[in-house]
Every structure is written in structure tokens, then in C-alpha cells.
Amino acid sequence: MTRRLILMFLSLLALGIALLGLWPHAGHEANALLLLMLTLQAAGQAAWHWRNLLLSQLFLGLSLLINLLITCTFLLPESWVGVDHWGALLASLPGDWHIANIRPPILMLLACLGLNCSALLRLRLGLGSAIQLAQISLLMIFAIAADPSLSVASMSLAGFERMTLLSFIGLLLLAQWADLLPALTQMWRRNVLPLIISTMLTFICLLAWQQQSQDENNRINQATYVLGDKIATQLSREINDQLNAMRRFAGFWSLMGQTPTGGEWQRLARSYYKDFDYFQNIAFIDPDSVVTRVFPDKAGNHDVLGIRLFDTQPDTPLRNPLELGIEGHTGIIDLLQGGKGMVSYLPVRNTRDGSILGAIAMVVNLEPLLDKALNSARNEAFAITLSERGSIYIHVGPESRLAPWGHRIPIELPATDLTLGLQPTQQYLAASRGRLPEVTLLTGIMLAYLLFLVIYMYRRVSQEHGIVKNANDALKEEMVRRERLQKEIQWLARHDELTQLPNRRYFLEQVQSFSGKMPLTVMILDIDFFKSINDKLGHLEGDRYLQKIAAVSRAPVEAAGGILARFGGEEFVVCIPECPRAVGRTLAEELRRAVQGAGLPQPATDSVVTVSVGMACVARAPLRLEALLQAADEALYRAKSSGRNQVQVAA
């Protein structure tokens, strides 16, 4: 219970951190979607630790749905569902909602997805919870260490908000590791190898994602730089072209050797103005800096007629052409007609005597010039500025939702340090950036997860197969042991354990099997004075005597094809098929001598142990075993009555 409370506390603490750090406020309305997903996830995990399965699945399922929708914005090709389509869906919502503003960095989003899935799978080792938590840990490490510029067109989570999200994921991850650790410790042998292999594959996929993201960023960076350089080059070319044209215009009046009349000025200036419609005006200024001619003579241009520029602009470069006979350029200034622009002053000299007749002023308005240079450029995708020494003179395009980076390209113009700034919008980055890095990352994570399951299941099946094999081997050994025991039992049921000879029961069975092998001879051997052996030498010694007598008697009987059995006590019985009476008697004498020759001491006679033998033989069927044994027994009785150590044959 205490452990469950601690784990639930970690989940609720993560929820509190998310609420404090991501609560939506002005300009951050899109945080509401992220906060909703995190809230459901933390609540679902807390319910899981509290073992409320229904609530856990409900909260985690809703959180997973939101997570998958956001993940789709990273993965779906632009040709399927474009950024404009996503934007149209978000445009109806109140506040600052757009595609880049609802997407957290991809690594953190996938970490939340992994936590969600592992909780839904109930942290089961057999379903890959160990590799999921290992992958989330790697994602967290890369999210902390990776360059933030790799997560383009995503939420600009920085500072406190970034720490909030990292802390949230870290606490939920810690709670899941703590919940899984006991089971993982018990089954670490089965998990360690697939965990190492799959973690290494995930690490390689993260490195591949990092490199592909960097390459994709470089591609977009290069493409936007080429566009900016194209615009800057066109601006420079346009201004240089019009400056060369104005030089020809001023040269014409120098060749004329006189100041232009009103009609001539209007006619010639109109042709130049048509070619360069971004001119604010073309003016003629006399040697005293008074504007005497202007084209077009309309709107604000008419107001500059008669103005002495040395009075209104004491530092004007107009002194260069009027006093020194060289060109003068103003750079970016506030035009008398309003707006920002540049003025170039070109001297008009009498070619005959070299006197200065005045100057031609070329007034360029920067805004129409920039519009012309942009031509077909996508104004909605870029913010373009013209600035000089940090002062922005013109801004064209959107002013918000811009990328955190841009290009500053110098424009080669006389007497200026004009710089063109080009900054793409987040929407342009989301539309232009390829999906390959994110597809590679997610595919690699899924392949590593599936590889873990394959190796895990293989090792599990192998271990279970080993257990079954060991059980089968043990069963086989038990069966062999039982079979051996059964044989021993069967053998003991038919043999005498002391002498290893067949017992009475087995003997009777064998005699019945010999019924067709006539003549059949039966002998009964009785050890003489065996009781005195047990009384004086002890039963152990008596057992040894029995074993010895059985050993010396067995060989001749089995050589004759018969069977020797212990009939009980000190008596042995012999049955030999196909044995005539004479042969039987000879074998009986051989047995008697073999026992006597064993030299076993007999305390009753101070001699050696001997046996008395009674023999009976039946020459033809039918076999009446009881009568045959009775005849042999009677013959034995006669042998013992006649002095023992002899063979008696029944009639």
C-alpha cells in the first residue's frame, strides 16, 4: 500500500507541475491542448497505480487519441493533409492557434506516447514495458542534449515551460520504472539481452534522426538563403541599372550644354520613368541647389519645386555634383515626399567649358522597389526587411509566427550599408520540411520494440522448452527407474534374494514348461546337520554356506540344461528335462561331491558340509508333478536315514 501511494503521489505531482507551468494565458492558448493531454495522462497513470483499471483506461485512451492526432501532423505527407488544411481546422478556434503552436518537440511528444502505451499495457514485461521505458529514457536524454533548432515548426518551449514538460515526463517515467523494477529484477536474465540489443537499435535510430533533421534544416536554410540572395541581387541590379540610365540621362544634358526646358524635360524624363516605375521622381537641380524641374509633377513631388536643398538638407551629398562635379549618394533617408528612399545626384556639366549646369536627382522609393524585386516570391511565407546599421526601414510580410532564425544578406549599393533580412514563417517550415526524420525515428522505435518482443519470446520459449525437456528427461529417468524396479520386483518374486537362485514358485512354473521334454529328472538336495551350523556358527555364517553351496551346485545343473532352485530352508531342488535316470544319478553324485569338495567346515561332525540327495525320474507323460516331488522327497528321506551324504533314487 505504501509503495502504491508513493507512485500515485509522483503521478499527481507531475500533474501539479504541468498545471502550474503550462496553464494557458494570453498568447499561449495552444498550451490548453498540450495541458489537456498531459492532464489525462497523469490522471490515467495515477488511476493505474491506484488499481482503478476502468478510469485508467478511459483517461489514457483519451490522452493517447490526442497524442496520435498531434503525431500525425509530423508524419502525414504534405500532399495528403497539408499545413493549410490543419490551419483551416484550427482557424475557427479562439486565440493564437496554428499548426506549429500545437506541436511540442517531437522527442517529448514521443516520450509521452511511450508512457501512455506502457501504462495502457499495464507495465507487463511480456508486452515490452522494459524496452518502452528504456526508449523513453533515451528520448529524454536526447531531448535535453539535442540542439533545439532540430525541432522546427514546433512549440517554442523554452525556459520554465521546457523545464515543466521535462519534469512532468521525468516524474511519470520514474513512477513507471519503480513499478516495473520488482518484476524486472526477478526476470532480468530473460530481459537483459533483448533489452540491450533493442536499446542499441533505438540509440542508432535517434542518431539517424538527429543527422537527418540537421540535413533537412540545412536544406531549408540553403533554400531560403538562395531566395534571399536572389532578392538582394535583383535589388542591387535594379538600382545599378537605373543609376546607369540616369548617368546617360545626365550625360545627354551635358552634351546639350544647357539646362533643360520644361517641354524637353517632360518628354525625356517620362521615357525613363516608365522603365523604372519605382522612382519617386526625377528632378533637375540648379547650381544653387534649387529644384527647378521634377517628373512626375504630381502629389508630393510638386511640393519640392523651388526648394533650396542646401537649406533643408545641409549635409546632403548634393554638394558633390554641384561643387566638385562628382556623383553624390544619400543612402537611406526620409524623403521629402514621405517614406523611405535613396537619392543619387549626378552632375550636369557643359562639355565645352566644363562649367557645372546643375544636377540630376534620382529619388528611389524603397517599398515599390522591394515589391518589384520580390516579384513572385511568397510574401506570406517570409518576412523580408531592409535595414541599415540595425535600423529597419521596410518590413514586408507577416510579423508573427516567424522562425527563430533567418538570413541577413548585404546589398551592394553606393554609399549604403543596406542589408536584406529574410525570415521564414513557422507555417512555411512545417510545409517545406520533409517528414523523413520523424518517420525514420518512429519506424526505428517500433522496429526496436518488435525486435525486443521477438527476442524476448524466443528466449522465453527456449527457457520453457528447456524446462519441458528437463521434465521429460526426468520423466524418462523415472520411467527407467520404475521399469528397473519393476524388473527387480519381478525377479525377486521368482528368485531367492540370498542365493540368487529361482524360488519355489518359479521352479514349479519352469517344471510345467518342461512337461513335453521327457524323461524328466527331479532332485531334492538337503544340507546335512544345517541346524548345527546356524546354532554354533550363527545365521550369517549359515547364509554364507547357503550362498556357497548354491554357487557350486548351479554350474553343473545349468550345464546340463536344468534349473536349480531354493526350495526352502536348507533344501534345494533340481529339474533337468530330457535326462534319463542313469544320467540323472551321475549328475546327482556330481552335485554331492561338488558340495563336499567345497570344504565348508561342519561343526556337528568336525568334518566338512555334505548334502543328501533324493532323486526321482519320470520317463513319459503325463507329468504329475506332485507325485514326482513326493517320490524325490521320499528318496531324500531314505538318504538321510541311511547315513546322509548319499544319493537315493526313487523307483
Q: Largest beta sheet, briefly?
A: 6 strands, antiparallel
Query: What would you call the shape?
Result: rod-shaped
Low-confidence stretches: none
- Can you tell me the CATH class of the largest domain? Alpha Beta
The proportion of strand residues reads 5-15%
Distance between the termini: 97 Å
Quantity of strands, as a count: 17
Q: Tell me the CATH topology of the largest domain.
A: Beta-Lactamase
- Structure classification: alpha+beta
Q: Indicate the mean pLDDT.
A: 86
Rounded to an integer in angstroms, the radius of gyration calculated over CA atoms is 58 Å
Discrete helix count: 19
Give the full name of the CATH homologous superfamily of the largest domain: CHASE domain
EC number: 2.7.7.65
Organism: Cobetia crustatorum
Keywords: Membrane, Transmembrane, Transmembrane helix
Pfam family, one: GGDEF
